[in-house]
């Protein structure tokens, strides 16, 4: 079947599988915060030597990027920084108390919103408050920065705190697209930050790009990718634009007619992907590209690459604690998500309670499916001890016929063309989705 036909056939609403079960399928009514405490403590008892990952959500942005699907709070008032940081530090102390000690941290990621909305001084206070004076190089630290407000001071302060990885949100350099999505940065700004970061000692610079944005054209995207290739970031995330206006009303600032869809969107993906591969980038998992010198590429080859709520990471930790508004934590056998508004989050923590709003306790079946989905997402392959269950085999039949997957008696292997349809392959294993088909659209389109 031609690529375009495959696209038409498989471009259905599909989860991104940063977790299994996916958030809309969590059984919140079977979850109590006490269960989360217990499961987290049990998991920590077993895994404390392996260290934990920490995600800190910093939600503030000075202006609304209309395409954005993340949890954000738009304000120009920087007085919000200090109380927010105090609250996150208080939340961290609650976790330290719950675990009975300061856990060993293996990975810290500052995400947003815009972490560089915060002054370098406030980020310093936040990280010192969490890590104490420990700035050992054993923690893999990364942050997301907006090219428009990432300063040398941010880069230097975070570098002193052990940060070696930086991710810049670019999306597209085309001024027409930037106007449509209300997000502006020039290649010169990005170049300057990249050069400064490397001079300071950052080892890996990532750029986020998106295909399928309103007003995007093949010529503009080609120019953007050319500029990007010239700057040679170590990693590139080339995301499919997720259009979810029922969740993100900001996306109603443009109309559906403005968004490239179907063949047009696929052509953008194909062009961008081809240019990146020709420039020496390797395709890694879903949406990601890396130079062979980057640690993510090395981990994808050694089989250590992992996927969690933060996306792909080069190492696996059994426990992820998410601090801040809307953050999700994962102790391996349970998920918990914080309140989604800054006010609700701060109120709970300041009342000395974790700000957990919902969660899910994973069943044995969930754990099994989760591992298979993770294997497919990170290694394009999974194997079963028994024969592959007939319901999964049945759901995979069309994908086998279209040569997107190869099915052995005990294994599923994604073929090179199948990589574009990774989300569709994972859906075949998503038992909760098949048991209860959504009545309304929950996820963005697969491609
Ligand atoms: C939370 S944003 C951080 C960007 C950073 N705050 C900045 O402004 O540069 C993380 C990334 O998610 C991606 N993203 C956000 N909304 C998206 C959407 N609707 N579809 C696809 N990717 C999206 C963008 O590539 C973005 O850079």
- Shape category: globular
- Tally of contiguous helical segments: 15
Distance between the termini: 17 Å
Sheet having the most strands: 9 strands, mixed
Binned strand content: 15-25%
Count the domains: 2
Give the overall pLDDT as a whole number.
94
What is the helix fraction of residues, given as a range? 25-40%
Please tell me how large the radius of gyration is: 21 Å
CATH topology of the largest domain: pyruvate-formate lyase- activating enzyme
Bound chemical compounds: S-adenosylmethionine
Q: What is the CATH top level name of the largest domain?
A: Alpha Beta
> Structural class of the secondary structure composition?
alpha/beta
Largest sheet strand order: 9-10-8-7-6-5-4-1-13
Query: Can you count the beta strands?
Result: 19
CATH superfamily of the largest domain: tm_1862 like domain
- Name the CATH architecture of the largest domain: Alpha-Beta Horseshoe
Task: Give the key terms.
Arc Repressor Mutant, subunit A; pyruvate-formate lyase- activating enzyme; single chain; globular; 39% helix; 15 helices; binds S-adenosylmethionine; 2 domains; 9-stranded mixed sheet; 447 residues; 3-stranded antiparallel sheet; alpha/beta
How is the topology of this model organized?
Blueprint: H1 3-10, H2 33-47, E1 52-58, E2 60-61, E3 73-74, H3 81-99, E4 105-112, H4 120-131, E5 140-145, H5 152-160, E6 163-171, H6 175-181, H7 187-200, E7 204-211, H8 218-231, E8 235-240, H9 262-278, E9 282-284, E10 288-290, H10 295-302, E11 306-308, E12 311-313, E13 320-323, E14 328-330, E15 334-338, H11 342-350, E16 356-361, H12 364-379, E17 381-383, H13 390-401, E18 405-407, E19 411-414, H14 422-429, H15 431-435
Parallel strand pairs: 1-4, 1-13, 2-3, 4-5, 5-6, 6-7, 7-8
Antiparallel strand pairs: 8-10, 9-10, 11-12, 14-15, 15-16, 17-19, 18-19
Helix pairs in contact: 3-4, 3-11, 4-5, 5-7, 8-9, 12-14
Bound molecules: S-adenosylmethionine.
S-adenosylmethionine binds at residues 67-70, 111-114, 144, 146, 169, 171, 208, 210, 239, 241-242.
